[in-house]
Amino acid sequence: MIPFNKPFTPPAGEFEAYISDIWARGWFTNNGPLVQELEQKLRAHLGLRNLLLTTNGTVSLQLAIRALDLKGDIITTPFSYVATTSSIVWQGCRPVFADIDPDTFNIDPECIEDRITPATTAILATHVFGNPCDVAAIENIAKRHGLKVIYDAAHCFGTTMRGKSIFGWGDISTTSFHATKLFQTAEGGAVMAHNKALNARLDLMRNFGHVDYGEFRSVGINGKNSELHAAMGLCCLKYADEILATRKQQYNRYLKLLKGLDVRLQKPLPDSEPNGSYFAIAFHSEKDMLLRKKRLEDAGIFPRRYFYPELSSLDYVEKQDTPIARKLARTVLCLPMYHTLTDCEQARIADILLGKRVKAVNGIGESCNV
Fold it and tell me: Nearest 5°: phi and psi at 331?
């Protein structure tokens, strides 16, 4: 079987050494030494001034919306994971959907401009599949209209724009360190504000608004992460460059293997360096996509419809017409991508998509033409 994703797993002994130290200290959470160490090392690795570990990427989005005191309408993308929209609704704001660019799969800046009204307070954009949005265009729009900008960068560990981490754009960027991501802490995330005062507010809010024993300065939630999760992160961070290099090699291998397949691929912007975290292919029709998906599944290979359905069609939001996102959500398929995926497994996947005959071994097609 070839699953859609597998977590990167560092050597068990390295993780166990951290766990032994945690047991000896008896300090499991509440800004422990490993959390502090991981935050410092991530800031250095990513070239960021501010980075706060959080419980997960969804809590990071909720903290960002709350920390910016957002009300009213937030313009967002219909093509993202449901957490993007749900966080807006959860915080009592109204998601207004701007359609996406058919090439980048990201929110289209021209469509953002068309959706702005006096009720608009912010833009929440997702860097889809680790491919950066047009951050310069979005920044210009936000400045002209006095809007805040949040980026859902859940897929973006290792992604750069103009040579620096994509996490460095917007008023706040958020990310996920879920086990399925390039860099993982099993469960976790981070929130990154580029204003010192805003960072301090986020830090306060992720810990109940707690300042000192018996003193609470503002409303907060429990958005902290634990020493156990930080231990996993410290183990994985040692291998971050290797993980990123392998993923980019796998992405480029798919490009080579699928050269004859009649599909659309996501296009990066100039001056950007996506991390290759996902390999998405868009077919010309939903029927064709479902046919190829079934062929793969019949061979024990499990791609994913990602993202489906488009968020502008959710039952708990006001329905809005986003035809490009609707078409993409019905025709896109993400292929298996994970650190231990082999050359031969990628070749097998490509052969099935291209309609080549493959030899069955234990119910799974076999080929290796790389």
Answer: -125, -10
